[in-house]
């Protein structure tokens, strides 16, 4: 009987030890994954903004040329980049100001749906003013956005026949 208990005890101890080893293995794996995750590439705030800058510019030429489908596409690209900033740049305190841009974006979307170019132009000005208002709020007042005067790319047609 005593030896049976002894064997059982040894077995239990062995099982416990095995479990601890498994836990340690798992922790090591988690730690190395965390390390990989920390050093993996993610675009920064400024990179998203540079992409927004291009879509803001294309949006203008799409709108004034009444290419409403392209205008709708460009406004959605801006919205996507803003969503990405909120998702990937959580370490940046500036994101708390980002929602000020929602209303001007929605107003432009409405103008695009209505294919109303006067509304489009007026709301585009309001959008640009809001870009700058956020830059002022976030100490980037030196970064001034304006209505573009020439199309950004010569290899894209904005006015459809
Ligand atoms: C959160 C408020 C906010 C809003 C809204 C915003 N920006 Fe920015 N923007 C910033 C911040 C902060 C930076 C600096 C990013 C960095 O640290 O690189 C910036 C940088 C930029 C840059 C500089 C990128 C470069 O490298 O030259 C451009 C261009 C830009 N924004 C365009 C726009 C446009 C166009 C809009 C409107 C459609 C807009 N931004 C709306 C906060 C904002």
Mass-distribution shape: elongated
How many domains is the backbone divided into? 2
Percentage of β-strand residues: under 5%
Helix fraction, binned, reads 55-70%
Task: Write the CATH fold name of the largest domain.
Answer: Four Helix Bundle (Hemerythrin (Met), subunit A)
Order of helices and strands: HHHHH
Structural class: mainly alpha
* Overall pLDDT confidence: 93
List keywords for this structure.
elongated; mainly alpha; 2 domains; binds heme C; Four Helix Bundle (Hemerythrin (Met), subunit A); 70% helix; 161 residues
Description:
This protein has 161 residues and is mainly α. It has 2 domains: 1-37; 45-137, Oxygen-evolving enhancer protein 3 (PsbQ), four-helix up-down bundle (Four Helix Bundle (Hemerythrin (Met), subunit A)), CATH 1.20.120.290. The chain is 70% helix and 0% strand. The protein has 5 helices and no strands. The chain has helices spanning 2-38, 45-64, 68-88, 102-114, 117-137. Helix 2 runs antiparallel to helix 3 (68-88), helix 3 packs antiparallel against helix 4 (102-114) and helix 4 (102-114) runs antiparallel to helix 5 (117-137). The longest helix has 37 residues, at 2-38. The relative contact order is 0.11. The mean pLDDT is 93. The structure holds heme C (HEC). Heme C is lined by residues 45-46, 49-50, 52-53, 56, 78, 94, 97-98, 101, 127, 131, 134-135, 138, 140, 143, 145.
């Amino acid at each position: 009987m005593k030896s049976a208990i002894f064997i059982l005890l040894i077995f239990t101890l062995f099982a416990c030890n095995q479990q601890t080893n498994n836990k340690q293995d798992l922790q090591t794996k988690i730690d190395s994954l965390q390390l990989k995750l920390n050093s993996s590439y993610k675009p920064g705030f400024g990179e998203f903004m540079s992409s927004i800058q291009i879509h803001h510019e294309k949006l203008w030429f799409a709108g004034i040329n009444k290419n409403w489908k392209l205008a709708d596409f460009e406004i959605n690209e801006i919205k996507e980049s803003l969503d990405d900033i909120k998702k990937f740049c959580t370490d940046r305190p500036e994101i708390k100001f980002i929602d000020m841009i929602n209303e001007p974006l929605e107003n432009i979307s409405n103008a695009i749906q209505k294919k109303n170019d006067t509304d489009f132009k007026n709301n585009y000005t309001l959008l640009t003013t809001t870009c700058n208002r956020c830059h002022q709020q976030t100490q980037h007042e030196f970064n001034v956005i304006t209505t573009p005067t020439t199309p950004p790319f010569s290899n894209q047609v904005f006015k459809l026949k």
